[in-house]
Write a structure and sequence with these properties.
Elements: H1 2-11, H2 13-25, H3 31-44, H4 49-82, H5 90-103, H6 106-111, H7 118-127, H8 132-157, H9 161-170, H10 172-202
Helix pairs in contact: 1-2, 1-3, 2-3, 2-4, 3-8, 3-9, 4-7, 4-8, 5-7, 9-10
């Protein structure tokens, strides 16, 4: 993992793009930890916020789109035959296929937050001949929230980034779910407070017509 940090520190945006692309396709790269570290580098001023975010976003979108292309172009037979190179087995593929059929296109967005599953959902979507426009709408939206979540986490944690990065790397599924829920609760509270303040402002005072 330290080697990945060294690459990002040395090569900056290019390393973020390439590593995220390869990690999302299925190579053993700690994607979430990489994003947290990128957020920390933004905090330090080593990386600029907008280029870092856009680079990470491009890497995640290209990686998930490449997985989709693999599934759509090669088909189930080839994926099953060569899947071991991407940590694929027939059993895992069938489980994800069933989950994709039950949850629908939302599996592409939700799957982004589950390590080891995001590239599988994209491959299954390609094998299912899902139109690329529909695929991109869900997968890229999920990728945007995913990148933003972990980059902001590293930015706001600052010097404490390593402790949470280790937790994320160990329990990424639970950590991702907790983060998404926390963000959802915060946004809901802010929405309710604004609505309450707006309602209070609309109530006429005594003596007003």
């Amino acid at each position: 993992m330290d080697r990945i940090f060294d690459w990002v520190s040395s090569y900056g945006y290019g390393a973020i793009f390439v590593l995220l692309l390869l990690g999302i396709v299925g190579l053993p790269i700690p994607d979430e930890t990489l994003l947290v570290f990128s957020g920390y580098l933004i905090f330090k001023g080593t990386l600029r916020p907008v280029p870092a975010f856009l680079t990470a976003l491009a890497g995640s979108w290209c990686g998930i789109s490449l997985s989709y292309t693999i599934g759509r172009g090669l088909g189930k037979g080839a994926v099953s035959k060569y899947g071991r190179h991407l940590h694929l087995t027939e059993e895992r593929l069938e489980k994800v296929h069933g989950w994709f059929n039950r949850v629908g296109h939302w599996a592409l967005a939700i799957g982004y937050f589950i390590a080891g599953l995001r590239h599988l959902t994209a491959i299954v979507a390609g094998m299912s001949k899902l139109e690329f426009g529909s695929f991109a709408a869900y997968a890229w939206s999920g990728g945007t929230v995913w990148v933003l979540t972990f980059v902001l986490l590293g930015y706001f944690l600052g010097e404490q980034w390593r402790s949470i990065a280790e937790l994320v790397h160990r329990d990424v599924g639970y950590a991702s779910l907790a983060l998404v829920l926390a963000i959802g609760v915060i946004l809901l509270i802010r929405f309710l407070l604004r609505r309450k303040q707006g309602g209070a402002a609309a109530v006429p005072r005594p003596g007003q017509n």
